[in-house]
Amino acid sequence: MITPTKGVRPERSLLYLGGHILADLNDPTTVSAAWEALARRREREGQDATITFDWFVLALDLLRALGTIRLRDGLIVKVVKG
Q1: pTM for this predicted structure
Q2: What pLDDT score was predicted for residue 76?
Q3: Which residue(s) pair with 78 in the sheet?
Q4: What is the pLDDT of residues 64-81, one digit of tens each?
Q5: Where are the domains of the chain?
Q6: Which of 5, 10, 35, 73 is deepest in the core (most CB within 10 A)?
Q7: What 3-state DSSP class applies to 59?
Q8: Is the pLDDT of residue 39 over 80?
Q9: Which residues neighbour 15 within 8 Å (Cβ) at sequence distance 6 or greater?
Q10: What is the pLDDT of residue 44?
Q11: CATH for 10-78, among 1.20.1070, 1.10.1760, 1.10.287, 1.10.10?
């Protein structure tokens, strides 16, 4: 689930999705805007594996647990560690 397994294709793993979410998170954004950005990216890349909103939220949860994003004033913000 977090990483690809025999039953979870790489493009459905939470780490893979989280990486795509982070790549598109250049500015603070809403959850719905991040969801739409991920859907556009997957369409551009021709990925046909269905990603539900629940799965997307799990990827956000993972990113939060890893300390790579946080919520500020209702917006998702990328955490930059220097």
Answers
A1: 0.91
A2: 98
A3: 69
A4: 999 999 999 999 999 988
A5: 10-78
A6: 35
A7: helix
A8: yes
A9: 2, 3, 62
A10: 93
A11: 1.10.10
